[in-house]
């Protein structure tokens, strides 16, 4: 895989605890995962400030988490406990075996990420932050780092790697929808919405949806999971219930290609 940033999110360097010889970056990672546990399990009570200070609030949140997984609640985060924090991410990136075809692997990988509930966080008053965003975006995070293309390319990268293929032979590594749309035009692999409306059969499961704002401007992207009637079933990152291009997580959505201007980057030339 080209996108291996997630490996840096799975570990801390040493045990961290209140009053200990703590490492600020490790404490921030712990606090981030405490907040993500609350997002995955609403009402758990582990949401804390992400400030790198292992104070009483962080200690109490750790104890709550420890009780929730039935281990001694001493408030100490060892590397092994941190592995429990991050198991969702590890399983998202490593928990899928290759399927019969690359397209089937793309669908399986996308569903597996969705199942493990990737969310962004607000850190230092910056949205589009946290372990999942950094993993999709090569370590980058912050309000300006919209991560929908980072998510989509992670899925393609992971799926193709399962088959010994390099996804950068299909498209450039980028975080920009415009880059992929323009590249698709140059490769004659971008199916414009006008053609899709005439012949939806041109689109295949596993292709990449691009939401078009103007002729050469695309603002959001997704993996196409299915084509049903006038709609695409998608899995996409950095969206929400409104279909935003700057939402908070990974979701499955339905988008109507007759009511919205949706182009498709086809993978059929290569797979």
From TrEMBL:
Name of the featured protein: Peptidoglycan-binding protein
**UniProt domain Peptidoglycan binding-like: residue ranges:** 47-81
Q: InterPro entries this protein is in? A: Peptidoglycan-bd-like, PGBD-like_sf, PGBDSf
């Amino acid at each position: 895989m080209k996108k291996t940033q997630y490996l840096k999110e799975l570990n801390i360097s040493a045990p961290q605890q209140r009053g200990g010889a703590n490492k600020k970056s490790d404490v921030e990672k712990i606090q981030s995962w405490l907040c993500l546990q609350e997002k995955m399990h609403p009402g758990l009570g582990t949401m804390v400030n992400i400030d790198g200070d292992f104070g009483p609030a962080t200690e109490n949140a750790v104890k709550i988490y420890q009780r929730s997984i039935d281990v001694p609640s001493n408030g100490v985060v060892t590397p092994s406990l941190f592995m429990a924090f991050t198991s969702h991410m590890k399983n998202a990136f490593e928990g899928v075996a290759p399927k019969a075809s690359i397209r089937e692997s793309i669908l399986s990988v996308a569903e597996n990420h969705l199942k493990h509930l990737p969310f962004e966080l607000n850190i230092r008053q910056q949205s589009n932050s946290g372990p999942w965003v950094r993993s999709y975006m090569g370590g980058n995070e912050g309000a300006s780092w919209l991560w929908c293309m980072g998510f989509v390319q992670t899925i393609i990268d992971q799926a193709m790697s399962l088959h010994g293929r390099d996804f950068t032979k299909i498209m450039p590594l980028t975080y920009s929808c415009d880059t992929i749309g323009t590249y698709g035009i140059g490769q004659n692999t971008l199916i414009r919405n006008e053609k899709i409306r005439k012949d939806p059969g041109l689109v295949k499961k596993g292709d990449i949806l691009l939401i078009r704002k103007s002729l050469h401007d695309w603002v959001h992207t997704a993996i196409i999971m299915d084509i049903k009637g006038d709609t695409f079933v998608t899995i996409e990152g950095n969206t929400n219930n409104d279909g935003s291009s700057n939402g908070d997580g990974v979701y499955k959505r339905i988008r109507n290609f007759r009511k919205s201007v949706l182009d498709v980057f086809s993978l059929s030339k290569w797979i």
